[in-house]
Amino acid sequence: MTMLPVEPILAFALLASPPAPIVRVDDPAPISCLSSDETRTAVADGEVIQPAEASRHARHAAPGEVVRIRLCRQGEDFVYVVTTLKRDGKVARVTLEGKSGKVAAIR
Q: Torsion over CA of 82, 83, 84 and 89, rounded to 10 degrees?
């Protein structure tokens, strides 16, 4: 294996420069959840599905008892964040698209 020569000034510049920040491009936008009144308004205006319907979608995706359901904004979109508790004691967090109820993520 042959080593390519590196100019000393270039090597110093590479070693002395601060590391570039790591930015994940697949990170979703931050989530901020709505109050009860804001949720009722979004449902009444037809912007999102009913919480009961979102709960059914979440239970189908991650069977268990729904212990919490919140309507949130992720960027410009509405999402439901549903927490389910399985019989074995494990917790699942299901994120659903607010308008369609389609499962976006399960953690």
A: 170
